[in-house]
Amino acid sequence: MIHKQFVQTYTAIVGVTMLGLYLINILDISYPLHVSTSVTTSELSVVGEGKVDVTPDTAHVNVGIQVSNTPTAEGAQEQINTINNKIIDAMSSLGIKKEDIKTSNYSVFPGYSNDGRTISGYNGNATISIKIKKTELVSQVVTSATNAGANEIHGVSFSIDDPSKFREQARTKAIEDAKEQAEKLAKNLGIRLGKVVNIVEYQPSSPIPFEAKSMALDAYGGGGGPSIEPGTQTVTSTVTLYFEKR
Questions:
Q1: 11-60 pLDDT, tens per residue?
Q2: Which of 159, 184, 199 is the last residue of a domain?
Q3: Are residues 222 and 134 in the same domain?
Q4: Residue of 116, 49, 109, 57 whose CA lies nearest to 80
Q5: Strand partners of residue 201
């Protein structure tokens, strides 16, 4: 009896196996076989965004000094140094500290005549970068630097000296935005929200400094100088909140 049951079971297993191999061959099923399962998540994730508009509190002005056709290299260097010191003195009179004034790109080089071999004189240039912590002084800085001998204005840019506190404000707004959206979604889906189980903040964006284009010196002639406004910059935060679903 037991032997008969064993034979029947064995025959059934062999039959099913052969049938399976036949179907695999006919249907051209390749190995390995992948099985996908779908599991309903127990969390609801919502993205929120927060923005804060900020008026920049710091300005940066870059002015240039150019001298040309001086008889000697020492003469070109002396002219640059004289103008550089006058600009520093002019900035000091506006309350700008020396540590906020930086001279760079200093160079003196020969100029040549048309034959390309004979030195006709010496040229030189330098760039002075000025950090201004009172943005209302920008126009005066540009005018004073020009009057002191700067003959190039490379540009004016505005920035936020410490954006961290504004990022915190933007983050708070982003979290509130995500919570509001989650509540609306939960209501529409007919579910209840539990506690927040995770929060992910995307890399907060730093405000892009506003930069005015290089300006011609004749724009600064007369009057009290140009009106240069800092405008506003936007600090943004994006977060994803993960809520329990009940």
A1: 544 454 454 444 434 434 333 323 222 334 688 899 999 999 999 999 99
A2: 159
A3: no
A4: 109
A5: 239
> Residue 22 carries which side chain, given as an amino acid letter?
Y
- The alpha carbon of 63 is separated from its chain's Cα centroid by a whole number of angstroms, namely 25
Nearest residue to 156 via CA among 242, 214, 221, 105: 214
pLDDT value at residue 94: 96
Q: List helix spans (H) across the chain.
A: 2-27, 73-93, 138-147, 164-189
Average pLDDT over residues 201-215: 60
Query: What is the enclosing helix (H) or strand (E) of 159?
Result: strand 152-159
Q: What is the CATH number of the domain that holds 206?
A: 3.30.110.170
Question: 216 exposed, middle or buried (CB, 10 Å; 0-12, 13-18, 19+)?
Answer: exposed
- As given in the structure block, the two tokens for residue 246 are 């009940």
- What would the two tokens of residue 149 be? 């001998």
Residue 101 sits in a domain whose CATH number is 3.30.70.2970
